[in-house]
Task: inverse folding
């Protein structure tokens, strides 16, 4: 039994980055659903994209660790899209702030 627990512990330690990334990835959908429910309409916020970017970065590391080209490429592409969306949200906020000031 101890050997089985030790083996499981070692396996989980190796998978920690991927597991954390997966939890954050799933959590971002839960966060988005909660924000949408609160707003009464579908909402996608900067925090959603930030969570997805963090998860994508962690899952990219996991793809590299497991030598999975497909996971690595998909997660890098997802990370870039999430960062682009954060950029657009910030750009819109700066433009709105400038419009209010002027």
Result:
């Amino acid at each position: 039994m101890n050997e089985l627990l030790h083996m499981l512990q070692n396996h989980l330690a190796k998978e920690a980055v991927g597991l954390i990334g997966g939890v954050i990835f799933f959590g971002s959908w839960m966060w988005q659903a909660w924000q949408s429910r609160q707003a009464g309409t579908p909402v996608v916020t900067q925090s959603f994209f930030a969570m997805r970017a963090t998860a994508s970065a962690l899952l990219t590391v996991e793809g590299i660790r497991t030598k999975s080209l497909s996971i690595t490429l998909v997660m890098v592409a997802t990370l870039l899209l999430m960062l682009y969306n954060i950029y657009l949200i910030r750009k819109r906020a700066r433009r709105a702030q400038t419009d209010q000031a002027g």
